[in-house]
Amino acid sequence: MQAILYVCHGSRIAKARAEASNFVEQCKANINVPIQELCFIELAHPNIVTGIDICVQKGASRIVVLPLLLLSAGHAKHDIPEAIRQAKQRHPHLEIVLGEPFGVHEMMIDIVVDRIKEQAVPLDHESMILLIGRGSSDPDTKRDITAIAKLLQAKTNVPRVDICFLAAIRPTLEDGLYEASRSFYKKIFVVPYLLFTGVLMKTIEKQLRSLSSSNKQWILCNYLGYHPFLQNMIKENAQILLRANKGA
C-alpha cells in the first residue's frame, strides 16, 4: 500500500505549525492515497523517522516523501536523506521515494507576484524589490535565489530586484536594506521569501522599523505562506512519484 509523508520544516511558533498542518490537510483532500501523514524536520513532532513509523503501522509498503521546502539546501540534501536512512534500518523491506523541494519554478514567481499585488501600492518605474531569503551555507541557495530574482524582474518589469539573506550568506539583511536606502528608488517592496511566519519575519519587521529614511516608502509584503499554487505543485509531484511505482 502506498503512503505520502509530507515533511515540513518545523517551528517553535504555534501559528507556523498550525499553518503547516492546515495546508497539508488541504493537500490530502486532493490526492487519492489512503495513508497521508505530516512530520517535521525539527522543532516539532512527529519527526521524520516517527512519521515513517506511523505510515508503516497503518500498512504502508511504499512511501512517497514530499519535502515542503522552498529550496534544496542542507535539510533537503542531508537531514531528510539521513532520516530516511535511519528509517530503512528499522524497516528494511520498505520502499521510500524522496521528492524534491519547490525550487526555482514558475509558480513560485507567481506567488511572489501575488504577495506584491496584495499591497495597496502599485509597482512602477520608481519601485524596486528586495527579495529576502532565509540563507544557508549551501552555495546552491544563493544561486537559486539569484535565479528567482531574475525571473521576478522579468515578470514584473521593475528596474531593479536585489537579494539579501537572513543568515549564513552575504549580502545580509542589513546590507540589502542599506543598499536599497542608498538607491534613487522611492518605493522599496520588501519580499520575505519564507514559507511560514516566525522569528525571521519578526527580525525583518524590526529592521524596517529602525529605518529613518524619510524619502523612501518601505512596503513589507507578506511571506509566501501556503499559497494555493503550492497545492498544485504538490499534487503534480505526488502523482508523478506515485505513478512511478505502477510503471515499475
TrEMBL record:
Keyword list, A-Z: Lyase
CDD domains per record: CbiX_SirB_C, CbiX_SirB_N
Catalytic class of the enzyme: lyase
GO molecular function annotation: sirohydrochlorin ferrochelatase activity
Protein's UniProt keywords contain Nucleotide-binding: no
Lineage, opening ranks: Bacteria, Bacillati, Bacillota, Bacilli, Bacillales
Protein name: Sirohydrochlorin ferrochelatase
Organism (species): Parageobacillus toebii NBRC 107807
Cell division is among the record's keywords: no
EC number: 4.99.1.4
